[in-house]
Amino acid sequence: MLDKNTINDVLLAALSTGGDFAELFIEDNFKNSISYIDGQLESTQSGRDFGVGIRIFTGTNAIYAYTNSFKRDDLILTAKKAASAIKGIKRDMFFNLQTKEIESIHSFKILPQMVEKKDKLDIMKLAYETAFNYDDVISQVAIGYADQTQNIAIANTDGLYVEDKRVYCRLTINSVAEKNGEMQTGGKRPGNMAGFEFIKSLDIKDLATKASMTAKTMVNASYIDSGTYPVIIDNGFGGVIFHEACGHSLEATSVAKGTSVFAGKIGQKIASDIVTAIDDGTMKNQWGSTNIDDEGSDNQRRVLIKDGILQGYMIDRLNGIRMNMPSTGSARRQSYRFAPTSRMSNTFITNGKHTLDEIISATDHGLYAKQMGGGSVNPATGEFNFAVLEGYLINKGKIGKPVRGATLIGKGNEILHDIDMIANNLDMDQGMCGSKSGNIPANVGQPALRVASITVGGR
Amino acid sequence: MSEYKALIEQLFVQAKAQNIQDMEAYFSEGENFSVNIFKGDIEDYKLANSIGLGFRGFYNGKIGYSYTEKVSKDSINLLIKDVIENAIINDSEDQDVIFKGALKYQEVTTYNKSLDLVSESEKIAFAKEMDKYAYSLDSRVVANQACMFSSGTSNTLLMNNKGLSLQEKSNGAFSYIYLAVAEGNEMSTGFEFVISNDFTKYDPEKMAKKAVDEAIKMLNAKPIKTGEYPILLNNRVSADLLGTISSMFSARAVQKGISMLKGKLGQLVANPCISIIDDPFLINGEATASFDGEGVPTEYKEIIKSGKLTTYLYNLKAAKKDGVKTTGNASRVSYKSTIGIAPTNLYIKKGSKDFSQLVTQISNGLYITELSGMHSGFNTISGDFSLGAKGFLIENGEITRAVNQITVSGNYFTLLTKMNEVGNDLSFSTSGNIGSPSIIIENLAIAGE
Description:
heterodimer, A: alpha+beta, 8-stranded mixed beta sheet, 24 strands, B: alpha+beta, PmbA/TldD fold, 6-stranded antiparallel beta sheet, 6-stranded mixed beta sheet, 10 helices, 20 strands
């Protein structure tokens, strides 16, 4: 994407004031998005993101600069300007850029750039028609489609030069149900790091029907009474609680600073015995996967918790230096506009020995959270809150009436100990995870599981 | 800028040759600096210069969009190809308009030269001082999660082939400190921020003290009993709520049937003590501007006047559909964005009572200082919310103890009618352009013990 001589000279300029290490991240990214609402096209956008990020290490600190310019002189100027923040003396540093060939573990059969926009729209129309015609109570449906083809090159003063391609496609279906002047929503948002073949493989009618089914169920639901309940959180997006309330605290970003509740706890029991949690960036074509991380290191499968015992963290290069631990290939960034840092990829709790039915039958009175919404966490205290998009009361071991308006609150490190049953229906769902290095695609996942007691906000 | 104007002229000529009729370019370039301090050291130091070009135009009567960050002659063909392809699949009956320009635009100030004269080392010194001062204030301060300062300057150019050419130079800065304090096993956090393009408004000691005080006060917080409580809503928290649901005012949302304000024009939708203003001319306002994303002159309006809904917010497309005049609320966040609708500086008009008077007016209730889960526990269409909350108990008209691990739930449209009294402490939230005074709410459902 840039010639090696230019890259070499920019790296040298970056080290001109005594930096220890320099890195370039070059991105050329083609994006398309389409929004379809009310049976009409609402907007379409196509564009090209292009930029270069330059990072320089000095001890355990880092300087970051980026520019959209691809001109040699501008890049060298940007590198020098960034380097001027370091008041050291240039050291002799020799490196010879060697191309690292990677064998992709992922396949992209149909590049979305090659697909006619009409073909994309046709699938969206099918989703719209199915979701809208599901029931008279459905008052509006919004369909979104987005793809991107991200070409990257990473070069650093260790002599690394590596290129990679990541292709993403995603479809979103949002149904609105209206009754007596009240509105409720339901949605499905499948995505993969894959070509358009992923969108073609989707059962659009089934997804659209499920989105509208949730909206209809919820508009007919009554409010849940506030209180504490045993809560069964179903598989797939239910994993968002582990992601937000525990996963972020296992990222080196917070561990290196010592601000994480899990800092210094490797080998200690942090969860109930039945909990094993994995962050696996190598799963073929999954939403949170990549061949290499955004520093050029090979991605890995990381065991975070095994049988309740903390095994390790997710670590990037800079925090690795701070923690005196090797990188786990966990450096990620939204784009060239962000310095990379340790982030999650596909993070999930592994299967347990029960079935969902067994867990429900074993619960006398509780809340069954079939679909979770998003939430947020205070990273210092671990306090979290999550919305239940589709919930049902459990009465004497049976699923009862649907309830709306439920919010779960608690503390991340406490909830891990309170998981008392885990099912065998592991599934993943897609999210966009926002943190220090921007918004990145990440899979959350888990089998259905029961938490003995959670405070539930309702009415 | 002249280099890029020439490039845009060339783009227009080539696009015209390929049968694109009315067309418009939106160009911006900017510089940015940010620094974050952790325990006395520079943890992050970031420099950026960025540039981008957005393009939209009519092909066979339909509009298409495209953009690029590789701003050069090589990109012209792709920009045109994408606009044509996007226009071809556009089956919308509602049509955009490329605006020919107006005779008069109100003058506003969006650029403060003195900010660009502040050196990077002064900005770093400010952040380091704030970091250091926070630790010095109280030994219970364990870590500044963030202690940062950021500033930037940008130039934008909106140009079309109907004669419109508008330019705006602006700069801005913001700073925040977010810290944790600990006492035994108890931990709590405090936060303070400033948004302004006037560097003299950044007082490191004042900011650090506010964040530390807030965190210390919250130590040993406990839940309260589940029930209905009269509420005093903190000004910034109220602003956050309003910002989250501000799309309800969009005429486009109304037309699509996804705003609860549909059919409510001229009706009482809030307590008569509530007026909500959209003011693009607000001095030092974060969204202050003389023209909107389509180049239309902006205008001042009271969206809700003494509880009554007087207007929705319009861009040209939505206005054309309703057969009304645009309100100058076309939004265009960047060259990557398509045209939407958004408020400018949106705020709830202040009342006459100061904060302490509001507190004494509540015999027993809850003062809410923080709501969490706004993007997930708040249905921005229905207005239903169920959010994590923190705050303080009010007993006999006095603030007594700290409260956490509770949720507060209700519906924003009901809330608007239950707002009984508005304070005089108008403040803007972290978004910068949404403001509110502190407000008394008749009651809300709290889940706690």
